Amino acid sequence: MSNAKVIPNIKERGNPGMPLVRLNRVLDFVDANIALDLCVPRLATVACMSPYHFCRSFKQSTGTTPHRYVVHRRIEQAKRLLGDGAGSLLDIAQQIGFTDQSQFTRIFHKMVGITPAEYRKLRTSA
User: Cα separation of 12 and 52, whole Å?
Assistant: First the structure.
C-alpha cells in the first residue's frame, strides 16, 4: 500500500465551504438589505470572516461569487417589482441598490435579455 494521503471525496466529508449558519446569515442579510452597498468587506463582516476567506468560502458553498449573487438577487427583486407594475424604473433601480437607471437597465438587459421596460410590458400584457 502506498504512503500517499487519501483525499476524501467532497461528498463524503460534506461541503468544504462556509459553515451553513454563516452562509444563511449572509444570504438573509443580502435579501434584507438589497438596497445597500453590499460590498465584499461588508458581507465578510456579517459572516465574521476576512474578505479573502469569505470570497473563497462563499464560492465553494454557492458556486458563484458574492458579487454575482448580489446582482442576481437584485435582478430577481426587480422582476417582482416590474411584474407588480409599481413605481418608475428609476424608483425600482434605487430600491434594489443600483446607482442609477442606466446601470440598472444595462445589467438587467445583459442578464435577462430584454430591457426592464420591455419586461414590464410583457408581464402586464400577459
Answer: 26
